[in-house]
Amino acid sequence: MRTALVIGTGLVGTSAALALAARGIQVHLVDRDPSSAQTAAALGAGTERAPEGPVDLAIVAVPPAHTASVLAGAMREGAARAYLDVASVKGGPRRELEALGLDLTPYIGTHPMAGKERSGPLAATEDLFEGRPWVLTPTRETDTEVLNLALELVALCRAVPVVMDAEAHDRAVALVSHTPQLISSMVAARLEEADETAVRLCGQGVRDVTRIAASDPRMWVEILSANPGPVADVLARVATDLEGTVRALRGLQSADANERGEGTRGIEDVLRRGNAGRVRVPGKHGAAPAAYEIVAVLISDRPGELAGIFADAGRAGVNIEDVRIEHATGQQAGLVQLMVEPSAASTLSTALTERGWSIRP
After folding, report:
1. Which region among 106-110, 141-145, 180-184, 327-331 has the lowest average model confidence (pLDDT)?
2. Which of 19, 107, 245, 359 is buried most, with the most CB atoms less than 10 Å from its CB?
3. Tens digits of per-residue pLDDT, 169-194?
4. Residue 160 to residue 143: CA distance in whole angstroms
5. What's the CA gap between 159 and 338, in Å, rounded?
């Protein structure tokens, strides 16, 4: 690949363009909003100048509702040797292209599994896709050269290629992406009119659950409109669990011992199934989940605190596998949870204590 055309300079399009430009690819940028393309170009993602002829690869990074029409326009113009889109749903756009009677041998649907709560070119980063799955949905029609160019794009963005059927992809993202977005928004919506005293009690659990609720509603309406059936199917199963959980909780309120027992078993069942599902979530670098031990350290909210902890952990020869920060309410302090291999926890605790850090149980 020597040249590329990125149509749509939002978060994903601009991030892909930045990654390609950084690796010497001549990238041309197009967006229906000229100021967005100008911003992407100013960030170093490419040029707004139109290519002189067909580019090697056209990357369509527009909302799912417009993906097929934009692809069709580019293909009819002969803008590239190969075409792909990065929409978060795959079955719909392909069916629309088929209905238009287009030759789909130069096309492949793809979906990089990466994003942020923020959108637009200013949120883009060259490393957005690094280490993240990038789904490719080739069919029997897909030309081998097109698949190879898509794989080259994934490699240049340092992502991990995953080949799937388009319909299987849409069912998968309904489960692991689209439904969690809605549930996060539903939980956060409960806070909208909650008493201020209750809101001030929010801890890390609420922050974790509601983090993605900060996403752009307009973007998510477009995504969900392109994949409503599979999402509704998953939510229907969640609703069944919710109804059962409500009954179990009502049972715990009962004066009848049998009903309380049924309620306890119902709550325990959903919590255990949650444990079993959580264990299946891939761990670090996509490997099997690992059991880490937490070393909790109290720190003040001032520059250099985290750097100091990491430096001292390095001097102790301990690798920090993961880290979380829980901020104290009403205080300029927080609790840093350092996740390490169980065999290293004692060593790290001792080393940090000797260097003056306050370890919490």
Report:
1. 327-331
2. 107
3. 999 999 999 999 999 999 999 999 99
4. 21
5. 27
Q: Extract the tokens encoding 69.
A: 């029409």
| pLDDT, tens digit, 9 for 90 and up, residues 27-38 | 999 999 999 999
Dihedrals φ, ψ of 323, to 5°? Answer: -150, 145
Dist. CA 223–CA 219, nearest whole Å: 6
Tell the residue number behind the tokens 């240049």, with chain if given. Answer: 156
φ/ψ (deg, to 5) at 160? -115, 115
* β-pair type (293-300, 333-340): antiparallel
Q: Please give the span between the terminal C-alpha atoms of the chain, in angstroms, as a whole number.
A: 54
Strands 55-60 and 80-85: parallel
Task: Kindly state the tokens that stand for 228.
Answer: 């409503």
What is the spatial distance between Cα 258 and Cα 117, in angstroms, rounded to a whole number? 46
Which residue type is seen at 242? L
Given a contact cutoff of 8 angstroms between Cβ atoms, the answer to whether 12 and 36 are in contact is: no
- Token pair, residue 126, equals 């060259």
- The DSSP secondary-structure symbol of 191 reads T
Contact status, residue 9 vs residue 39, Cβ threshold 8 Å:
yes
The chain-wide mean pLDDT, for the chain, equals 92
d(CA 154, CA 28) in angstroms, rounded, equals 18
- pLDDT, position 134: 96
Closest CA to 124 of 169, 52, 61: 61
The predicted model gives 80-92 an average pLDDT of 95
Farthest-apart Cα atoms in the chain, separation:
79
pLDDT value of residue 288: 60
Which residues lie below 8 Å from residue 148, measured CB to CB, with a gap of 6+? none
Give the CA angle between residues 113, 114, 116 to the nearest 5°. Answer: 145
8 A C-beta contact, residue 11 and residue 119:
yes
Q: What does the CA dihedral 292, 298, 302, 305 come to, rounded to 10 degrees? A: -50
Phi and psi torsions of 350, nearest 5°: -65, -45
Gap between the Cα atoms of 328 and 137, Å rounded:
46
* CA 267 – CA 257 distance, rounded (Å): 15
Cβ partners under 8 Å of residue 343, min gap 6: none
